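= Protein in question =
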Amino acid sequence: LFQARAAEHPDAEFLRFGDSIRSYGDVEADVRALAAAWQDLGVEAGDRIVISLPNCPEAIVAILAAARLGAPVVPVSHQSSARDLRFVLRNTEATIAVIPERLGDTDYLQLYEKLLPELPALQYLATVGEEDLWYDDRIFQFEDLVSAGRGLEYEPVEVAAPDDAAILYTAGTSHTQKGVILSHGNLLFTGRATAEALGLGPDDLTLCIVPLSNIFGIGATLVPAIASGGSLVLQQEFDAAAALALIERHRPSVLHGVPTMFVLLRRALDEHGGDTSSLRTGIVAGAP
């Protein structure tokens, strides 16, 4: 679906993050390059790829590149405990994990290096960050993989609607996490239906304040935007006052969130003021 959108309208805006604006064609080039780099490392259809990042362009590129290879993505919150990360990585027998180098006080590279001996299936780490670090033959910087992939031939993989696209972990009604498998067909049907129900079109800009590490971020935000040919502006991590500033700056028409987010946005609006008149529609979910 994304490849088709990029072919039809390569210059159309797709993604805003910070001060950067990227077109469908820009992101498609990175998706193809990363898929080629992963394919060169031996990633095959069915291999699981854990993506544990905050909302950022790299998360979207990784999700789409994995889909291109028929490799199910396993989105995991970067705020998960080491115990939960170990469980998900072992339970899925993930081949690759895409992680931040460092966020706040947490050194994720150090965390995962401690986990590696306990994860025989985990072959590679791809790290997102700005530090120029030296890595071994199992750890790569995300941008280096994308750069390397631009010079590689990419072998297309046949991916069918019933194939596994994502595995999302939820505790649900128990204390034990369970992996819920979603197919490409699941995500595409829901994404297209959501876009139709909300009347989304190419002119709609969605402010993504929900995490891309869960189904709300992927199924209700990312896929409907692609299905409608619209665009996204990402907030790395939710903050109500900063989200209001993004609304005033970018003038999005779509906003999804859980009830707590809207309560905090309402309070911030009462306290600081702001113009939210650009917002037209959205989804609230996650509580009665």
Q: What stands out?
A: The radius of gyration is 18 Å. The CA atoms of residues 193 and 209 lie 21 Å apart. The chain is about 40% helix and 20% strand.
